[in-house]
Amino acid sequence: MLVQEKITQAIAILDELGIDAWLTFVRETSAAGDPALPLIYGPHSLTWQSALLLSRTGERIALVGRFDAIVAEQLCVYTEVIPYDQSLQPHLLAALARLDPQQIALNYSPNDVYADGLGHGLYQVLQGYLAGTPFAERLVSAEGIIGALRGRKTPAEAARIRTAVATTLEIYGRAFDFMQPGMSEAQVGAFMHAQMAELGIHETAWDRESCPAVDCGPDKAVGHAGPTDLRLERGHIVHFDFGIREDDYCSDIQRVVYLLRPGETSAPEPVQRGFDTVLAAVDAAVAAMRPGVSGVEVDAAARRVIVEAGYPEFRYATGHHLGRNAHDGGGVLGPAWERYGDTPFRPLETGHVYTVEPGLAVPGYGYIGLEEDVLVTEQGAVYLGQPQRALILR
Which end of the chain is more exposed for a tag (fewer CB within 10 A), N or C? Predict the structure, then answer.
């Protein structure tokens, strides 16, 4: 059971970081769910104010409304389930008094959206509960705990991502056989959605309207937008960005096709050179990925290949965490830009799963972007699916 694995992992992380307790404070999670909640409470919602309290000594306490207590007990992962009717406050204070944590990691973060599930209003409620107690001065951000918990994939999590990648590559293969010049981007996108349905996949990895992205030719703006009525033309690059969510875990893969002009048997030199450059940037990033290396170092390795080949640097990070979401929080393989905060400086760890996605535009032909999903191991990074090593020609 993944929840059991992740809670056991969380307690080990608390001990590793020297933090006595982790408090996840939530309410009405069907309306405002905490991003960490599926890791420690599964797919279930919590209604009244609830406190999930994990300690470095192994206590796992769920303080929940009475009508949520049955679900909490059925999870069989909390050593103590404490229901309440009128007020959570006395039960929470009693649990904290018994544990007496010197630091209480709370579900807020200035850097990581996936560790920032506590709204300001609910934080004020908690401050009121803790007023006049020593615990009010012991609150710290839980971003280090949540980043590690979310980032360090268990073997079961990595296996689910690998399965999602395999399914995604199968859909890609079908799409490449289906696509023809004269079709619209939207027709190709609809076909890929149909293949998802045929394979029993119900969720894309991000907004369905923009997943897949299908970008044909030099006049298509590349970004977080979906396929349009633009027609596929010979002599153009077709760039794809696509992922699915299968068994709660995501894939995120980009592929590149070149549509041959009449008489062509290979891509023109500018297209081939652009592809080879992006492929070399992917290889440079993957070669740099090993435990202890920072994301900014990996990004620099990929970015250097693009720039030294004479292309403008890409204006985004080389890669991001992948897991329950396509962008899964924690560190990034990114440059030291203000908008990324401290996330590019976080070290890679065994069990991390990242995308690697450098890219460049080829004037007159379109955009080339490759994206591979890789797992960090003690020996370095390994691909979770077959990478694209050559241009796909159609």
Answer: N
